[in-house]
Amino acid sequence: MTEAVKRIYYFMVHSNLLIALAAVAQCALTYMILNLPVDPYILVIEGTTTLLLYNLSLYLSMPREPQKSPFQRTRWIGRNMWLFWTLSILAAIGTFYALLHIHLMTFFFLGMVGGVSLAYSVPLVRIRGQWSSMRQVPGLKVFYIAMVWSLSSVGLPVIELFANGMAIDWYMANYLGIVKIVFLVLCTLPFDIRDYDQDRLYNLKTVPTLLGKENAIKLSFGIGVLHLLLIIGSPYALIVKYGMVLTTALILVLFQYVIFAKQKHYHHVYLLDFALILQWLLVLFFSYVM
Length: 290
Fold this sequence. Notes:
This protein is mainly alpha-helical and 290 residues long. 74% of the residues lie in helices and 2% in strands. The radius of gyration is 19 Å and the shape is globular.
């Protein structure tokens, strides 16, 4: 990897622009899979709200002296707070503008998804007499994140089209929601495996700390196989199946030789965020060549 590519890679990861683009790609993929017209305002909302929520989560976890943090990303944010706030303000403006162009039903649905998302990072629920976030519920983290992504990247565009009178194949839409949850768990669980030692130190009950790191790695491969079977048995067009199967197969190869390899880098796992974009690109590619 050249120095220029590394700089771009780390910039996209640290600024949360990569995960925001991944959200837009997953939302655009929903329109392709269900063969529905794309709504650009929904894509804007998907990208900007994702950036805002991830920035909020990052901000809430920032130490008082980020430059002393052992984590490269935290130190980078500490040095570039001006960029952090600029992107957040631009995202807020973009969200507000796009919200003016959606149906009222979609607005309420988005508010529900936003509340569920905030409950992950912000202590909004009482657990055993104490205010806690859903992140503290043992083993829930990866499944919760996957559910929120499915609601936003599948539910949001479908609800907006339905609210505007578009006929929806609900079997295909609901099936995609389930497939999306499995795919997001596949792409999210390795982050918890990477953070195994840190989460044990802070007594966070994630799937890897509950099952053990090796069992969590085996579970990751099992989830990949499950996702392949769900795609093969799906009611979608062959071009969709080709793109999605190839993406999952590449992820499993990435698991074997990069993510879970003995010689690994802390930031290798962020390649899975690129996989969220790659899935859309591969389906788009097959749609043009076949």
